[in-house]
Amino acid sequence: MPARLVGILLMIFISGVSSELLASSEGQYFDRGMEAFRAGDYDKAIEAFEQAHRLGMDLPALYYNLGVSYYRKADWDTAEEMFLHTSRFEEMAPLAFYNLGLVSLKKGNDVEARSWFSRAKEAANDPRLETLAKAQLDKLNQSEDLWASIVSAGLGYDSNVTLDNDTVTNVSSERDYFLEFYGMTRGVLSGTSKNGVLLKASLFGDLYKELTDYNLIEANVGAYKTFPLEGWSNEAGGYVTYSTLGGEGYLQSGNLSWSGQTQLAERLRLNIKLRLRSVAAIQDQYSGLDGTAQDVRLDGRWGLNALSQLRGVYQLELNDRKGWETETSFSSLSPTRNTFRLEYLHQLDERWNMVVAGSYRNSHYSEENLEADGEVIRRRDDRLRGYLEFSRTLSKHAGLSLEYTYTHNQSNIDRYDYDQSIISANVQYLF
After folding, report:
1. pTM to 2 decimals?
2. For 201, which of 59, 255, 389, 415 is 20 to 30 Å away at the CA?
3. Is there a single domain that holds both residue 42 and residue 161?
């Protein structure tokens, strides 16, 4: 960052320090620090600012000026720590996010820098800062890494192992421990991530200690075209999916999707996703799931302030599946589903974040079931789910998350009623 620009940003909040404060002992040390900074003596400035802190000063301008001083001395780790302290104060959080992006660039972490600049741009209450953050993002997009990947692994406990996947509900009424893993890679084949051709691949799995029949593994690979259009960022493409259940072939599908996102207002962002699926069973025993599915998803994110965000999601899912059929019974596997989800995301401190969420899903099946006892009934389910997550940044590439999910599903067919609690701990690594 040019020295002149650092000086400009430094002065933005110096005016917020009152004359009464400067008349106090800690204020006098703060003033000495400013004089030393202007003279280019950053060691002396840091010494004075630290003394003001020891005397009790706890103001965002103090942490910010310390951050800039350490930045000038190329002490990136301490500068990062000071800017993280600054981000606790809402009025200076956008500027702190921007400077955290600058520190990430100096440390060679473009992915983290992009995240900080994006947060600065979204939270900016000054058009000059918004312009600076956008310029940094544009520069990063021109020189972005062609490939980015994330891997995650964790252990968990499931109070009632249940297969609630792809319109199937199978309740074990047994508890078990599990290992879960996830990996995803994305490559830019041509152009940039915002306007180019991408390749994406992912692998997901849940592996149980005892109830291995519920082990589910799913792999996806596909290609996408990204492009901007009339204020929208668009991504359109297709992918194929292959999954196993209990160690044997389960389902395969071909998928077409489009997603677009735009900024509706200063703090409100909208994402829309459409998907068409053609599903085929790999083994005859799952042939009742053969058919098609379509869904549309609306995802709105509203920035409440620099540290908090509210997210609302609505999804409509339509299914046309073959269904389970025997000589004496039939079970529909073609639900129309409406899902509503509300999330509250909050940055607790420099390293910890929290997510609290709740969702409601209703499922109305299009065909009547013929039960083994001769009863004819059309299935209807209502599912409530609560979710709590605490996540911590461990390093510029690694993170840790602790998650709890509670599910209550109520159906007009008793065998589909269930309650379930899942607790898990995961580590993630981004590269």
Report:
1. 0.70
2. 389
3. no
